Amino acid sequence: MGRSNPADALAYRSITEPWDAALELFRFAGAWAPAPADLHAGWGAWEGDRLVGAVLMERAGAKAMLHGPVVVAPPGMPAEEMLGVAGELTTQGLAHAGSVGVETVFARPQGLDRVWVRAGFIPVPEAELPRSLRGRPGVGLFGWRGGTALWSTAGRGGSRSALARGEH
């Protein structure tokens, strides 16, 4: 008897040091991952003992960068269910971020726009990244602030006229 929904059989839990299983999954999928020393947290989806999905978080104070999610489909899992696994891993990462004082989470699109938009991310300019999170591979950037689409650079660095007058 086959499963009607393979994603329902997956177990989700946090990943901690050593990061070997998650990093191996990223290498298998050909996805970039930060050095283990730079990782703050991670979450995985397991089918039995086999890790089939992971998302990793790098932290810079009140800001963080999600890497992944990477999902390697178990046999028989439809593509739409893989997106559901990616979404669940992202949700777990955002829940953790809020619980540890991370206010802003960034992610590279990686063709997962549906996952990011459903989780409340919006496209943001590259200049929003803190210096310590810059230089990661990928084109484009999504940002999340507490699950809202409210995003403004107002008040960051003062107005142009105030800066021109030296009032910053």
Provide tags for this entry.
single chain; 168 residues; alpha+beta; Aminopeptidase; 7-stranded mixed beta sheet; 4 helices; 25% helix; 26% strand; disordered C terminus
What would you note in describing this structure?
The chain has 168 residues and is α+β, with helices and mostly antiparallel strands. It has one domain: Aminopeptidase, CATH 3.40.630. Helix content is 25%, strand content 26%. The protein contains four helices and seven strands.
Query: What's the level 1 CATH class?
Result: Alpha Beta
At the fourth CATH level, what is the homologous superfamily?
Gcn5-related N-acetyltransferase (GNAT)
Strand order of the largest sheet: 1-2-3-4-5-7-6
Multimerization state: single chain
Number of separate structural domains = 1
Outline: globular
Beta content: 25-35%
**Integer-rounded radius of gyration:** 18 Å
* CATH topological fold name: Aminopeptidase
- The parts where pLDDT drops under 50 for at least 5 residues are 1-5, 153-168
Please work out how many helical segments DSSP would assign.
Answer: 4
Q: What's the helix-strand series?
A: EHEEEHEHEEH
What's the N-to-C terminus distance? Answer: 68 Å
What's the helical proportion of residues?
25-40%
- The average pLDDT is 83
Structural class: alpha+beta
Strand segment tally: 7
> What's the architecture in CATH terms?
3-Layer(aba) Sandwich
Give a short account of the largest sheet. 7 strands, mixed
